[in-house]
Amino acid sequence: MPSGLPGNYTSLTDVTKRDAVRIALTSGLTRPQVTSDLGVGLSTLGKWIRSMSDEAKAPECDGDLLRENERLRKENRILREEREALKKAGSVLRGSKAVKFRFIASYRGTPSRSRLCRLMGVTDRGLRAWRRRPPSIRQRRDMVILAHIRDQHRLSLGSYGRPRMTEELNELGLRVGQRRVGRLRRQNGIRIIRSRKFKRTTDSDHAFNIAPNLLQQDFMASGPNQKWAGDITYVWTREGWVYLAVIIDLYSRRVIGWTISNRMKQDLAIRALNMAVALRRPPPGCIHHTDRGSQYCAHEYRSILRRHGFSVSMSGKGNCYDNSAVESFFRSLKAELVWRRDWHTRRDVEIALFEYINGFYNPRRRHSALGWKSPVAFENKAA
Predict the structure, then answer these.
(1) Which residues make Cβ contacts (< 8 Å) with residue 66, sequence separation at least 6?
(2) What is the structure's pLDDT at 252?
(3) Which of 58, 121, 280, 343 could form a disulfide with 237 if both were Cys (CB 3.0 to 4.6 A apart)?
């Protein structure tokens, strides 16, 4: 009886599994005929066929998986690039089209210009038109004002907000309003950053005598050396706390006496007072106002005040508003200097305070209470 196998197969004993599957799939014979000719069971041949089918599909499945992984890696890379671009853009996203175009033109990251335009909500066509278009008179004016804003931001230790910055620019001869200054600061990410620590410095739990409040929250004076105010604050360093005592002339808000120490003892306040007295030689009757801290109520400190003819005044218990002029100075000092750095040594603080008080606060910093003049300029004008 002739075999139903293809002519290439004359013996069935050496037919391999793969050959059997190929015969079953390509010979045109039914599976019972193939199993009869090969001498294998029908279920065995079925298992062989399914096994070979799975092996044939495996490379195709692996290829699909590799292509999907590659697509996901590409998407992740694109998302990372776009996230980095948006992070660098910052406030530019809220700016005008011109601000966005300037950012896109100067960006040196991975995303293409067209992708950046889509992220910024502008068009490629608009970007090309902006690059060909010469800046308008207003834009050139904005660039000049922005250069001065950056310079004054640096000179003011990054502390000037919109009102003070506007006064500074107007004094330089630039006629500009607060809204324009605010817009340029906002569009270019020029802002003030503040943080804080807290430490209690007023120790009013003592047995010393308390003086009445002569000031009654009236911080205005018609001339220098009529009303002085003092207080103590603190700065944290890696070596520990540093304490700062100051004396301020309320007429011009000028710091006329100050000293620092690593201990909050009465000699801290005494040295600041002696410095102010040596500098100003106040006439008898000058009001000296402080809180109820033990340093200011101590006998030695009070004897110095009596010797120079001061009228002693103290705040009400727990009322920080009674000495708000000095508290305002401390807030400015910390916002503009202390909170911006990590202080390593007490010597670093001493040098920085000297530069701040004598190099910026007294001669340069503008005060709204003084008609936006600095303490030194206000005193010179009055003189």
Answers:
(1) none
(2) 93
(3) 343
